[in-house]
Write a structure and sequence with these properties.
The complex is a heterotrimer of chains A (333), B (345) and C (540). With 345 residues, chain B is mainly alpha-helical. Chain B has 14 helices and two strands. Helices cover 31% and strands 24% of the residues of chain C. Chain C has helices at residues 65-72, 95-100, 118-123, 137-150, 167-180, 197-212, 224-230, 253-261, 315-323, 345-350, 360-364, 371-377, 392-405, 422-434, 452-467, 479-485, 507-515; strands spanning 27-36, 39-49, 54-59, 80-85, 88-90, 103-106, 185-189, 216-220, 233-238, 241-247, 279-288, 292-300, 304-308, 330-335, 338-340, 353-356, 384-385, 389-390, 440-444, 471-476, 488-493, 496-502. Classes of the chains: A mainly alpha (333), B mainly alpha (345), C alpha/beta (540).
Chain lengths: 333, 345, 540
């Protein structure tokens, strides 16, 4: 889905836009502003909102989304998409849970999760990058294939009595009051942000999403990069699964259902363009925080739990609308 | 008037074909099979029928028509996906299943709780589906949202709304008796197949192959820049494609509610993947501008008969999930490969 | 094939290693063959470039020069023949290989990343690194600024987003990119098409600097005046063959044109004159900001008026304004005496105006569909049965009739249009315009990419259409075509009408009007301040 719509005619001039900042994406400030306003407003209206416990809950709840969001950002930057992350999460979670249940160690559990995730990601990556099948179709298919695999491993029942081996990743695992999982997410986000900014292979992701043909021509190893981003996403899904397993004694067969939307929502609300070529890992983290805030706010306000996704859907449309307006103002197409 | 100038007979564009060896002819036949998706699917259907036909109870009108009925809604949604995907620019409708769920609740409310005459309620349901599709179409075609984003968002909007409006409880006993009419059978074949599926297949075929709209749709999907020069109403054509998908969702809601005598908010949950699978299997290209009703219908038959065989052999339902996923991947890869090798078909 | 090039000089003197011995060509292509679907696009072409030489490459559209360049830059591979580069036989399997060997290409349509900054665009794939392999932003920016300065562009552009800038700036940035890559051979494909004269001067400066360092430059251009200004030698390609390679000093524009076409241009070949009717299409002061300004036009029934200009002259935009795709901002338009505002193609169609688009592949054909689909696509309103349905019998009759009349070579009207030759495809798209029997027919580049035989046919058809009473506007950058076919020629340059000619005008005069002065480095030519386009470069 490259944006090579109507090419401008030779000789046709276009209005020169205003100068943009060179490194910051520009959205970070806006998002921080909205977050700040939202928290202040909600805290004033609902005093329970800014209780430490509530804040910790929010941070903990978005950790998984933020972790996978890093990978999803990279995938979307290249012009792709991955809707199989929820099912991938289920596969990794059930394997890790069963391993931990059988008395395994933390280190091996994490390694196992990451490895399985990488494998799943490699399947997606191979089909998209080398098979050249559209990402939406590929990951739609693997969404169900992976879910099938997970159900097989689950043997159609939930995994019970999981020991607290991975509780470091769970809601009770905290460092200086901040949930560990969230710290992991922040760390990964910073690393990704730095990588995308500093290394040519990171920059190449933007190039691929901006104009795949030109990238090919310029000598960018497009297929390799495309393959890599799906593998990275898989690795992060594996990592997120350790957070899921560490969050309680039970893992259910329907784990991860709807997870992909939350991740994509975070990325899109953060301002990364779904068409590829523009975006930021930092903004995805902020987007995830916004989504977490929205959910918490809905609960606090007493909104019906069934409508959470409804509001999320509307929120996505609103966020993308902002991006659309900015695009339209920029070009005369 | 320039017929006289043809006297300088330029070389005809097809030279007389040289004699071909049997191997060459086989190769050409093979190419034809791969390129003409309908032939490939027909062969697949024959294989499946022949294989499972050996098992008792499979090869009967009753059993086979029942398999078709189970896949009726998916077949309808697949036709909706066909139209949307043909419209081009990577368009797809991820919200189709959620629209079915929502429309099912609409039928439940209108026919069940508000006691509207059933046929009025059914029309309202279909109308509601059209409206939901129109929303997708408006946002995607006129406002300019990428189709994936729009339909992903509306998927969750309708899905959660459907659960909310009756607090996840199905509406069943309140539904009037006329609901069951479509679920009745005639000579072992469900009425819904005859009264809904068949007419819609014909309607869609006529729409795509005989109407002006169909020409516009294929033109817009193939090359929307040339379509602009040819005045093919690009935005409007795309809008109606999404609305059509909503229409199919509305119709599917009526039949599924009728079949189970129950309006459920999760009615559409498993439908989207299977519908898209069938569309891709049927030869639709994600890039747009290509796809035929015949392909989609044959793909529906193939999937229905294949599932019927698996069920008869007692294979668990989740394997059908896996089978579908693999089928989707396989057919997508085949699409990509043959489009590149043989030019778009 | 990693592109880990270390830092290098930008525009300043850099270490271009001494190549082959003085008179040994830097590049030699021998006997190059290329086939597309059974058609020999290149038939044993020989081509060479010396170190420090500017070698012009010229030929009609479809003659094969683009194909030759594609092979050299690695986009395509030859079916036969050899390439010797720097004394060694080479084969470029892909573009990265060619690039890595030092062959840089600047394409006619700039290939850019709209979402990245200018500096990034220049260095993608050849990023400058710091010691620990991170991207050295500071160095890149510094080099980019140097390059921009050497191209007389505002250094502040370095961190502007590409998508915000004009197409001409894109072209210049593409040139900067090629410079940054430190090539030994630089291919420029119609580089000045969208540049102003001042920018073209800058381009020439750059080219001269490069050749002084021993770089071999291949300069492809339609603009005969530029070839005479900048090249040392010229190769003329015609019908897939190298028909002549001569030092530029031995040639004249007229001779080059003759070599391109393959026969003597006596100027005597012309369509017969015919009686003219009333003015059908009338335009006064037509203006669209950024494209053209103050354009006056009058086309009578039975008349063939040519709108001639080199690529970038705005002629194409005038056509699109008349057809309503990109309407004019100001000025007066009248059809058959009635004042009109043409805001969309639907309006144009209702007024009896039809347009044959310039780029048939992108704007004209629906490649995977049959001939009848393609013809009726633009005429659905006229082929209805009961408002909703297609009148298939009428469609079949009209398509067959037109297809025969235009002599489209095909076994059936159900044949996929993508399988036809360029000339036949063009006829099909033309048939689409003719189905409506238009009063005004605007033809953009009517015989571009069309073989000689079909070209003659198309020209004859244009004459017949005019004889039938249509008012025909031919917008073309093909000089011999315009001279042959048109009763009057209006020449556009940089968006404005500069001169009009009647029948029998000389090609040199028309060309001179379109190109500007033939021997200019004087600044009075660069009167962009009153032009329709905004001043670029220093004010960018």
């Amino acid at each position: 889905m490259t944006a090579t719509d109507v090419r401008p005619h030779p000789g046709q001039q276009r209005a020169e836009g205003t100068a943009r900042r060179s490194f910051a994406y520009g959205n970070e400030v806006t998002l921080l502003g909205i977050l700040a306003v939202a928290w202040v407003a909600l805290s004033l209206a609902y005093p329970t909102f800014h209780e430490v416990g509530n804040i910790q809950n929010v941070l903990s709840s978005i950790a998984m989304v933020a972790i996978v969001g890093v990978g999803m950002t990279m995938v979307i930057l290249t012009g792709g998409i991955d809707v199989s992350v929820g099912s991938g999460l289920a596969v990794c979670a059930v394997i890790v849970a069963k391993y931990v249940l059988s008395g395994g160690s933390v280190v091996v559990a994490v390694a196992l999760g990451v490895l399985v995730g990488a494998l799943l990601g490699a399947v997606n990556g191979a089909i998209v990058a080398f098979g050249r099948v559209a990402p939406i179709i590929t990951t739609f298919a693997t969404l169900n294939l992976f879910r099938f695999v997970s159900l097989q491993i689950f043997e159609n029942q939930q995994v019970n009595g999981i020991p607290p081996t991975l509780s470091w990743f769970g809601p009770t695992g905290r460092t200086l009051g901040v949930p560990n999982a969230f710290l992991v997410a922040v760390l990964l986000t910073v690393v990704a942000w730095w990588y995308l900014k500093s290394y040519s292979t990171g920059r190449h992701l933007f190039a691929i999403g901006s104009n795949r043909d030109t990238a090919l021509f310029a000598g960018v190893r497009v297929a390799r990069r495309e393959f890599a981003v799906y593998v990275v996403t898989g690795v992060l899904v594996g990592l997120a699964s350790t957070v899921a397993v560490g969050s309680g004694g039970v893992v259910q067969p329907n784990i991860g259902t709807g997870f992909e939307l939350q991740v994509i929502a975070a990325v899109v609300i953060g301002g990364t363009s779904i068409l590829g070529g523009r975006g930021s890992a930092l903004c995805t983290l902020l987007g995830a925080l916004l989504v977490g805030t929205l959910r918490s706010a809905l609960v606090t306000m007493g909104a019906p739990g069934l409508l959470t996704d409804f509001f999320l859907g509307v929120f996505i449309l609103a966020a993308v609308a902002v991006d659309l307006v900015r695009q339209k103002r920029r070009s005369h197409r | 008037m320039s017929q006289t100038t043809q006297a300088t007979a330029p070389a005809p564009s097809t030279r007389p074909a040289p004699r071909q060896s049997p191997l060459q002819r086989l190769g050409r036949l093979g190419r034809l099979v791969l390129v003409e998706r309908s032939i490939l699917l027909a062969i697949g259907i024959v294989i499946v029928l022949a294989y499972y036909g050996q098992y008792v109870g499979y090869f009967t009108v009753g059993y086979l028509s029942e398999q078709l009925t189970l896949n009726l809604e998916i077949g309808l949604l697949a036709l909706g996906q066909l139209v949307v995907i043909i419209s081009g620019r990577g368009a797809i409708d991820l919200s189709a299943g959620a629209m079915v769920s929502m429309c099912s609740m609409v039928l439940g409310f209108t026919a069940g709780l508000w006691h509207w005459p059933f046929w009025v309620a059914a029309l309202a349901t279909i109308g509601a589906g059209w409206l939901m599709g129109a929303l997708n179409g408006y946002l995607a075609a006129y406002v300019g949202y990428p189709a994936i984003i729009v339909t992903l968002a509306t998927w969750y909007v309708w899905k959660s709304l459907a659960l909310y409006v009756h607090n996840t409880t199905p509406i069943s006993s309140e539904l009037p008796g006329q609901v069951d009419w479509l679920a009745g059978t005639v000579a072992g074949i469900r009425i819904s197949l005859l009264a809904v599926w068949l007419p819609i297949i014909v309607l869609t075929w006529v729409l795509l192959n005989r109407t002006l709209y169909g020409r516009r749709l294929y033109g817009v999907g193939t090359n929307d820049i040339a379509a602009r020069f040819a005045r093919l109403q690009v935005a409007r054509t795309r809008f109606h494609a999404f609305a059509f998908s909503g229409l199919m969702a509305g119709a599917a809601a009526v039949t599924v509610t009728s079949y189970y005598h129950s309006a459920r908010a999760d009615a559409g949950d498993p439908m989207v993947l299977r519908a898209i699978t069938i569309a891709v299997l049927g030869g639709v290209l994600i890039s747009g501008g290509a796809g035929k009703v015949s392909g989609v219908v044959l793909a529906t038959l193939l999937v229905a008969f294949l599932n019927g065989g698996l069920t008869l052999l007692g294979v668990e339902s989740q394997y059908q999930l896996a089978a579908l996923g693999l089928l989707l991947l396989g057919s997508a890869l085949l699409n990509v490969w043959s489009a590149r090798r043989f030019g778009i078909r | 094939m990693s592109s880990d090039t270390t830092t290098q000089g930008g525009s300043g003197g850099s270490a271009v290693t001494a190549g082959p011995a003085a008179n040994e060509p830097l590049l030699r292509m021998t006997g190059i063959e290329k086939r597309y679907a059974g058609v020999r696009a290149l038939r044993g072409v020989d081509f060479e470039v010396l170190s420090g030489e500017v070698h012009g490459l010229i030929g009609e559209n479809g003659a094969g020069k683009s194909t030759l360049i594609k092979i050299l830059s690695g986009v395509e591979q030859a079916d036969g023949g050899e390439i010797e580069y720097d004394g060694k036989k080479v084969h470029f399997g892909n573009t990265a290989a060619a690039l890595a060997s030092g062959i840089g290409t600047v394409f006619q349509e700039p290939q850019v990343f709209p979402d990245l900054t200018v500096a990034e665009n220049v260095f993608v794939g050849r990023e400058l690194r710091t010691g620990d392999r991170r991207v050295d932003w500071a160095e890149q920016e510094k080099h980019c600024v140097e390059l921009l300065r050497s191209l007389h562009l505002d250094p502040g552009l370095a961190h502007r987003t590409m998508g915000d800038l004009s197409v001409a700036t894109w072209q210049l940035v593409s040139i900067a990119k090629a410079l940054a890559a430190d090539c030994r051979i630089l291919i420029l494909d119609e580089p000045s098409a969208i540049l102003t004269s001042r920018e073209t001067e800058t381009l020439f400066e750059v080219v001269r600097r490069l050749t002084a360092q021993g770089v071999g430059v291949i300069y492809i251009s339609h603009r005969l005046d530029e070839l005479f200004l900048i090249t040392d030698r010229v190769t003329v390609i015609r019908d897939g063959e190298n028909v002549a390679t001569r030092p530029i000093g031995e040639l004249t524009p007229h001779r080059v044109a003759e070599l391109m076409v393959g026969r003597e241009l006596t100027g005597a070949e012309h369509l017969d004159p015919r009686p003219l009717g009333d003015v059908v299409l009338h335009a006064r002061g037509l203006t669209r900001e950024g494209a053209f300004a103050d354009v006056d036009l009058d086309v009578r029934a039975g008349e063939i008026v040519g709108l001639y200009g080199l690529i970038g002259s705005g002629a194409d935009d005038v056509a699109l304004a008349v057809y309503g795709i990109e309407p004019a901002d100001a000025g007066e338009l009248a059809v058959k005496g009635r004042k009109v505002r043409i805001g969309s193609p639907v309006t144009a169609d209702r007024l009896g105006i039809a347009l044959l688009p310039a780029d048939r592949k992108r704007q004209g054909i629906f490649a995977s569909h049959p001939i009848d689909f393609n013809v009726s696509a633009g005429n659905l309103e006229r082929l209805t049965a009961g408002r909703l349905f297609v009148n298939r019998r009428r469609e079949r009759d009209r398509v067959t009739e037109l297809s025969t009349r235009l002599n489209v070579k095909t076994p059936s009207i159900k044949q996929r249009i993508g399988a036809l030759s360029g000339g036949n495809q063009q006829k099909v798209v033309l048939a689409r315009q003719l189905l409506q029997r238009p009063d005004v027919l605007v033809l953009e580049e009517p015989s571009q990419g069309v073989d000689v035989g079909a070209k003659e046919e198309i020209h004859r058809i244009i004459g017949e259409l005019a004889e039938g009473g249509a008012a025909v506007l031919v917008v073309s950058s093909d000089l011999p075509e315009v001279l042959k076919v048109c009763d009057r020629i209006t020449v556009l340059r940089e968006g404005r009408v500069v001169r009009s000619f009647d029948r029998g005008a000389s090609d040199t005069d028309v060309l001179a009007a379109a190109a500007g002065r033939l021997h200019s480095t004087t600044p009075d030519d660069d009167a962009r301040t009153d032009g329709p386009t905004q001043p670029k470069g220093a004010n960018g």
